[in-house]
């Protein structure tokens, strides 16, 4: 009995670590934020309005509104890749991602054309084409229902064509419609939507003129606003193919300073268009239809600079970084994929030459300088993504040539890190760089998450707030680095322990990774934590040797399901608008609306697979492993035989990355980010084990 208990000690400790890790995912308590209470809400939309258009000279009314109210960067994501004016207005009215503009996506948006027919009351109007718009949106996977905002109040007033699109009820009626603003118009209904036109183009003079005209019209609105009214100013859309961050200001009861934030972003200073509808209903103390709305009510948070000029400049700088990041990021990952695949091909002769059979006819070893150069290049390739993450410590996007600036900063960081790691690992074990470099990448992401994920926000190796996928926590690329570092770093550490203790080591390291990824205080990626759990269980099961049997796979899947259920139960203690992706999916499954989510995730996976350069890296790596590394001279078989924990780590890495990518709708991007670090390190480890294959000493 004592012997059995001694043998089961690592397993019991691993179970204890898993329970503690799950408890660490307990969500933060609901904050007691005072809800704004107003008698009127006026939403003023200016399509294309950005923070670099706002200044005290050209737009004094907007500047004063920003000084007195809460401000933030507005993501104008809609159901279309390019959000034109009609799409932004309809998304506002639906409280969900909607589409209004028809036709293919071009470099510029077509003019907003709205057919408005006055009704017999001389105060209301109707949109004769609204039925087709409603039917089109209900057929999309988002399930947006135009008119959901208007249905939440008894009376809505629209001023201007864009406002009519947002204010129309599902059957096309606008309660009250006017062409101009006066005091009677703004006080006729509790909710008023005002269209002040648009600010288009890149010409500074033209934009300044449009901004002045919009500011003069806004001054009329402010002068005629009734008492106890919340005024929301929003740059509701883009007007060309370049996705940008726009203006969001809320001023009135409950919004008297600070940053705007919402549950959909969890980032102070950032809100979405889909947050505006629940914000209006919350301010009017009306019930919010959570099943229809994709966002949450925006609230005010602290931390804004005392100077409104500094706050506005910070938001304008975030917009510049987000717009540059999308172009530079695409180029960076494309070049990285080409460089890594070319490096793999160049290493093939060294792999074939590395194994030197004993005997008088043995060929001479490859020149040491060539082998060492290949090792340095492989280390550099594995550090490229962490170097791109660290590059955001310097504001390269502000420089005159941001692409060259990013390249210079990244190469400098890459050179320093490569030289340090290459020198320190020159005489280490074959698996030391495999775990050490992977751990360095995971450590960089962890430190970033601990400090608020500032490097990932709008970073090349992070996520773009303008794209609207994520605003806080760990992103897709960061998740790939964390999965790689946790599994390969844990495997390298476990190799130093006795065989029976290796699963425990993997469980401890995996629990730390699960906390970093899944905790709502840190990574806030519950589905990523579930995927990592499956990967860690697989790695732990294979750490003692053997292969991935059906029994081991079942245990790994069961553990992931247990974590999923645990997160779902914990989500029951959170408000509906603060639940994780796992909790929302379970709730949607219960009420029968999970089909929309499944369709959205499926379509996103298809689009990402076709458009992402990381897909090419995944395919190229699979072919390279199949036709090179798995050959007798490839070295990977010997690597996995000599280091069983590495075999488990690589199996867990693939399982966790694929699972996370599919569930989160990013296809192979998580696996591609993981392989960008893991594949060069695996090739390096193969070179080293082949080089020592004929050693007769320990």
Automatic annotation (TrEMBL):
Q: What is this protein called?
A: Uncharacterized protein
Q: Which organism is it from?
A: Dactylosporangium siamense
**Transmembrane residues, as ranges?**
332-354, 375-397, 403-423, 430-451, 471-491, 503-522, 528-548, 553-573, 610-630, 642-663, 669-690
* Keyword terms, alphabetized: Membrane, Transmembrane, Transmembrane helix
Highest taxon of the source? Bacteria
